[in-house]
Design goal:
42% strand; Immunoglobulin-like; 5-stranded mixed sheet; 6-stranded mixed sheet; flat
Length: 628
């Protein structure tokens, strides 16, 4: 499993000397003693410097947990209780703290990340399989990790387990959490369950429909198991939910860690300095209680970069409400609710909570409670009516986490033309391609007909934005609305901005809507420059990975020979392997492995060329090394 070059985990001194600690650590919950038990809302601080860094890999946008029972002998404590745990914990304040680790940030080392948000998840049901190994036999019985991986894929192929679900960018959202009966030992490398570890999570090396799958391995925690000691201080179910929460959170924030080569994508969030690993490892075995809509559960604290502590209530999204500044009493109007990530103020496109509306106006007509789905991309328009004159508020509050809220203030009574939103954010867009249209709604609540003189786009990068369609004519009747649709086609890399300018005879003319987006290459290559360690002439140096990311919304096609070397010393560098096929799906990435074999002494340089159907092509990465 996850053979990453991280610092070694702390292995319990009381364990058998027949097994030795691995040369490279693996993503497990080590079996230990002296557990730290904390109360509800508790946090545990750590030494300064601990920080989860982002390396460019995927996270899980909206987790779907599929519970798998390895045969019919799994403890009834688990089969009766674990489904309710996942149904409630994935829709809880505890789960909200994972939203801090969205990937719309620049990865360590540069390049493009996966631009994902993390929203709440769902429980995908429980399934009892008939495994091909250790099924109902007389214990003890041994299952290797390779057999676990094969069994999961085979059971999906046989339609005994549901297929994995994908998010809008093609990333896997499903986690198969596997619970084993008593008498079954899981072997990971040469390390045994309930001797060295309580549980672990991984990513299959094999694929289903070209996708690597996430799975968790949970041994028996019954009273006769070694996991009953050193894997928790509570009841059997409490210990199971404690360790399950650890593996669940790490899967969400570091999905493909097992497939990463050192600190490169697809590694996501991990701490590289203190050897504490992933979000759960830093807080290993620190127990707490999480309150959910369906009850309370024992969970492990998780690390928060923002709080610099292990917490069970941490960061969370917020709501941004955009509403007209002025409306007429009794006239309906539209307003927008957008979920915002706790870091970076970007839209939480994976938000999946339910929102309830209140107002300072006791006569207000407000929307019914609304449940967001991932298809809403974190934004939704609503209608409302206010009747009491003066400044009134509309507040949106999440029905599970009351700390997720937002308020807009609207003056009831006025003479202006209202427009929402006042800001159109297009995010990243490949240069030379056109985004989906975003709309601005104009509403006439002035008491009379408005004459519209012009609708124009001005500003620094006006040519990058286009008013594609509009329902607005030269006049707009009282209490009527019209729409302007604007698309974004970046003409160059980097931030691009302009202003939608609407000129009319309303009191607040002209109305101005800020337009903003960022141009990115159609295909990005990272890192753009690679320096190899000094290598003896004729010897083969260390392999370096170069990541190729398709930023288009269409499939990328590679040339017949996609990777070639040019420059001063092209013969000193070679392609040793690649995960790139003939095509690359929209929004996905692949890697090419490059080695350095100097043919002479001194500095040696070349250029890696990536030839494909994007424009411009080829993309390049500069290579350098020293022969000695």
């Amino acid at each position: 499993m996850c053979f990453l070059a991280l610092a070694t985990v702390a292995w319990p001194q009381q364990q058998s000397t027949e097994q030795t600690q691995p040369a490279r650590p693996i993503h497990i919950v080590p079996r230990t003693v002296g557990l730290n038990v904390l109360g509800r809302g508790a946090s545990s601080s750590h030494a300064p410097g601990i920080q989860l860094n982002y390396y460019g890999g995927p996270v899980v946008s909206n987790l779907r947990v599929v519970v798998v029972f390895w045969g019919t002998r799994v403890s009834s404590v688990v089969t009766d209780g674990i489904g309710g745990f996942f149904q409630n914990i994935t829709n809880s304040i505890y789960f909200d703290l994972l939203s801090e680790y969205s990937t719309n940030v620049t990865p360590i080392g540069g390049g493009a990340g996966t631009n994902q948000s993390i929203g709440r998840g769902t429980y995908g049901g429980s399934y009892t399989i008939t495994p091909s190994v250790c099924n109902g036999g007389v214990p003890p019985c041994l299952v290797t990790d390779a057999q676990v991986q094969t069994e999961v894929i085979n059971q999906i192929n046989a339609a005994q387990l549901p297929m994995p679900e994908l998010d809008s960018n093609g990333n896997v959202d499903t986690l198969y959490m596997i619970y084993f009966p008593s008498g079954v030992t899981i072997q990971l490398q040469t390390f045994s369950s309930c001797v060295y570890f309580c549980a672990y999570h991984g990513t299959t090396t094999g694929t289903f429909n070209s996708k690597n799958l996430a799975y968790g391995v949970m041994p028996d925690f019954g009273p006769t198991s070694g996991c009953a000691r050193g894997c928790g201080t509570g009841t059997e179910l409490q210990n199971v939910t404690l360790i399950s929460s650890h593996e669940m959170a790490e899967t969400v924030t570091d999905f493909d860690a097992e497939l990463a080569a050192l600190y490169f994508p697809p590694l996501a969030w991990i701490d590289p300095i203190f050897g504490t690993g992933e979000i759960g490892d830093i807080c290993n075995h620190q127990e707490s209680v999480a309150t959910t809509p369906g009850g309370t559960y024992t969970v492990q604290l998780l690390w928060s970069n923002q709080r610099n502590a292990c917490v069970n209530i941490g960061s969370h999204p917020s709501f941004q409400l955009t509403a007209p500044s002025t409306v007429m009493p009794g006239a309906s109007f539209n307003f927008t609710v957008a979920a915002v990530n706790p870091v970076g103020s970007s839209t939480d496109t994976s938000f999946a909570g339910s929102v309830h509306f209140t107002s300072s106006d006791p006569q207000a007509v407000l929307p019914a409670d609304f449940t967001f789905t991932p298809n809403d991309q974190g934004t939704q328009d609503f209608g409302a009516t206010l009747k009491k004159s003066g400044a009134q508020t509309i507040t949106a509050t999440d029905t599970v986490n009351s700390a997720i809220l937002g308020t807009a203030t609207v003056t009831v009574g006025g003479t202006t033309l209202t427009f929402i939103p006042t800001l159109l954010l297009y995010g990243i867009q490949a240069i030379g391609t056109t985004s989906f249209a975003r709309k601005v709604t104009l509403t006439n609540q002035t008491g009379g007909t408005i004459s519209i003189a012009s609708i124009a786009i001005t500003g620094t990068n006006a040519s990058d934005f286009l008013n594609t369609t509009t329902t607005c004519s030269s006049t707009l009747a009282v209490n009527q609305s019209c729409i302007v649709n604007v698309t974004f086609t970046p003409g160059a890399l980097g931030p691009r901005s302009a202003t939608l300018l609407i000129t009319d005879d309303a009191g607040n003319s002209p109305q101005q809507v800020t337009l903003s987006g960022t141009g990115v290459p159609q295909v990005s290559v990272a890192p753009a420059a690679v320096t190899f360690a000094a290598t003896f002439v004729g010897s083969t140096g260390a392999t370096r990975l170069i990541r190729v990311k398709n930023n288009l919304r269409t499939t990328l096609t590679f040339a017949g020979t996609p990777f070639t070397f040019t420059g001063t010393d092209p013969g000193d560098f070679a392609q040793s392997a690649t995960t790139c096929g003939t095509t690359l799906a929209a929004g996905t990435a692949c890697t090419v492995s490059v080695t350095f074999i100097p043919t002479g002494q001194g500095v040696r340089t070349a250029v890696l060329n990536v030839a494909d159907s994007a424009s411009p092509s080829p993309q390049t990465a500069n290579l350098a090394g020293t022969g000695k």
